[in-house]
Amino acid sequence: MMKKTVCLLFLLLPLAVLPAQEPYETNVDFRGFAWGTSMDEVIKKMGKPVSREQIDGLTSLVWENVEVSGFTSYMIAYFSPKGGLQGGTYYFVTRTMDDVMKCYDTLQMELYNRFGRTNLFDTFIKELRPYESSWNLPGGYVYLFVNARLGVPVTLWYSSHELSKTIYRKE
């Protein structure tokens, strides 16, 4: 009996000394704002937007020169009349192909560290396809994309499930 207990302890000991892997986040927000945050609250924190537009019942507000992970971007926040903040997009300002790749790679690694690996990840033949990664999480949807050949900037999109359903229903 003692021999079995000692053997069991030796088998379990490595598990006790390994650091516990932290679970990835499943909550999705946009720039620290929870889904449903009022437009007034976002404007209060972000300042006056440079542009406002109404499209299909959504109000979109645009800010310039918004810093994200050390990169400059245009930021768009989407609001529904009843639900407040429903999503947002960053379009990153890059000047060279090296800037594009550095921006994309940095953001992708930060998102991997926050939300975990994704099934949509190009590990080979990257030069023939656009780069993209996406996370469909209980708290929302996150999509990182770039296609420099078509002039599409590094784009990082966050969406509540409500906004995703609205968009995909219309297509």
Model description:
Strands 1-2-3-4-7-6-5 form a 7-stranded antiparallel β-sheet. It is built from 4 helices and 7 strands. The model is unreliable at 4-20 and 124-128 (pLDDT under 50). The longest helix has 19 residues, at 97-115. With 171 residues, the chain is of the alpha+beta class. It has helices at 2-17, 39-46, 97-115, 161-170, and strands spanning 51-55, 58-68, 71-80, 84-92, 131-137, 140-147, 152-159. The chain has one domain.
> What form results from the Cα inertia axes?
globular
Read across the widest sheet, the strand sequence of neighbours is: 1-2-3-4-7-6-5
Q: Which class best fits the helix and strand makeup?
A: alpha+beta
Helix content: 25-40%
Q: Please indicate the percent range of residues in DSSP E strands (runs of 2 or more).
A: 25-35%
Q: Count up the domains.
A: 1
- Which series of helices and strands comes N to C? HHEEEEHEEEH
Mean pLDDT reading: 82
Biggest beta sheet attributes: 7 strands, antiparallel
- Residue ranges: pLDDT <50 for 5 or more in a row? 4-20, 124-128
Integer-rounded radius of gyration: 21 Å
Separation, N- and C-terminal Cα atoms:
66 Å
Could you give a quick summary of the protein structure above?
The protein has 171 residues and is of the alpha+beta class. Helix content is 31%, strand content 34%.
